[in-house]
What does this fold into?
Amino acid sequence: MKHRIHLAVVTCSLCALTSGGWAREVVAEKEEPEQKAEKALPFVTSYKLSPDLFLNGSKVVSAFSDAEEVALSSTVKFFKEGRVFILGTAISGDGYVVTKASEFEDGLPFEVETLKGERFDAELIDVDKDEDIALVKMPGGKVSPVEWTSSKETSHGTWVTSAGVRGEHLAVGIISANRREIPRRGGVLGVLLDPHDDDKELGVGISAVRPDSPADKVGLLKGDLITGIGEKKIKNRRQIGRVIERHDPGETIELTIVRGEENLTVFATLAYRSFVFDPLDRNQRMSGSTSIRKAGFSEVLQSDLPLPPEAMGTAMLDLDGKALGLNIAMSDRVTTFALPSELVERVIADLMPAKE
Amino acid sequence: MMRRFHWLRFSPFGVLFSVIWLAAGSPVLAEGKVEVEKHTHALEKDFPESKADLIAIQKTMLDVLDQAKAATVGIVSKGSGSGVIISPDGYVLTAGHVSGEPDADVTIVTTNGEHLEATSLGNIVFADAGLVKINGDGPFPYVEMGEPGQANPGDWCFVLGHPGGIDEDRGVVLRIGRVIRRRTTTIQTDCKLIGGDSGGPLFNMAGEVIGINSRISMGLDDNYHVTIRAFKRYWEKMRESQLVRIPRTYVVRNGGYLGVNKVAHARGVSLTVIVGDSPAEHAGLRSGDVITHVNDEPVEGTFDFSRKVGSRKPNEVVKFTFEREGDVQERMIELGTHPASS
It folds into this structure.
């Protein structure tokens, strides 16, 4: 899950929600030329573009040199258990950094490293759970802060760039869609429910339990009946969806279960929807590893920056190296969300401890 | 023209390829219209050398983007895909696997959210080219198709589409990139695609459609589009709602046949599709296998592989060496005859 597969070999036709046989039949790429027919298509080929000339190839990226300097001097890497799990952006000269808050929810100890390789202890000062921004202080760490600029002038096609995979290389792309809200998604239990039980008064049967889901962790089994959540009696599937949806990922709910003759009570801590259900989604499977939290932002700018989920927390820069926003979620292989600079600055002002 | 020779330096196969290309492609090029654009100097460079070049590229795209967006549509058939209107009376290019069976009812969703009734026409299955006609005469906002054979590696391009389905708040989604490679019916670019983009347009910087989004592999640079050549070549058949499953080229194939589709791989070719009831399937080859050697000769790309297989006779037993999940394996496989030639 943690490594993005860049050169895997699965070819896949693209029809979303494919049904029937079409998609299976259309993947062919048949243009071998060697035996020309009288009426054959003229054989036309061209050799492959050298990778350094791709959009994200080294030669193209070098045109973003102004931004590169800023990206490389303002980005920090967060380590836990010996690996980079997220990046961050310096916002002051005295060691304050912003990053993606939900990546810190496991509470594990972490360290910060500058791109020059200096490592510092750091402290999580505060988080804004709504917008998924964390403020971190790294005492002693000297990193150049980014300069925020208005995001209002951006539109489809505006060039953007960010520190890339491990912070060292730039990723480049453009603003690709309308600025908008990404509505909140509630937590999930990770069960599929039996549609046949909707009319029964007893509760709702579990038809499958997703591996590693909250339901799996508390030992729920296929065939269990969910009869209550908290104080609420459960009679149909829609009710379960509605009740659970109100809770955020990370919240714990009490479930009343009937298993055969037994009555059980379990406490399940809800997970992010994407953590549990992305493996069932073809577009997500074609995207490799993506951000676990990718919804619930009051406003985002969308880009096609090719960044892995570990490279969130970086500033999304314009061609001058000014920060238009903070990359906050790699949603799929064509979609990266950034919180606009105005929103980030407002959150920072709220999170910053008052000056003495 | 300069660029083509530039590529010669990059590939050991360049000389061979370019000879064939010249023979077949030049007449088309000579007839094709050459767009002289305001910002072409930046577009003609092998790569942008400065911020000014980047801005010039962006401006060129923005000049044509509004029209491109207006002509790009969502298509709801069995699934959800994209398409592009290429005539004022409402012909819509899309992927074959989006338009599906000819003469079916589909719904077109325009950029401003209008839902229009439409009918699927022909489908060139092997190329994944499909055609849809909006019911009614229009006029509809449209874009021009480019001339076949004009998209070359290094050309700047952009795609539009509805990844993951139509989302009115998000709108149509733009991605920029460059042409990586062009074959007869397929263009590869690094304009990143995903499910739902299928059928959406690939544009050159003059705002002409040069491809239709078709398929991807896991790599971010593995985005494949149907060429305009495929559409123009089969235009009449598509308008007449015909279904074309096998290209004519194959009728005269009389060499050895394995029954695989493949893409180039650093160590040979990587199999993407195993044709049902083919020698490859009977021998147990699988999608994902990387064939490195044919009769102990190293495989250098798809062209070389096809030559190595096609130059042998049907019923000849050939040794294939391949990598599967880190293991190297060998199979002796008796080649067959191409289904279309028997």
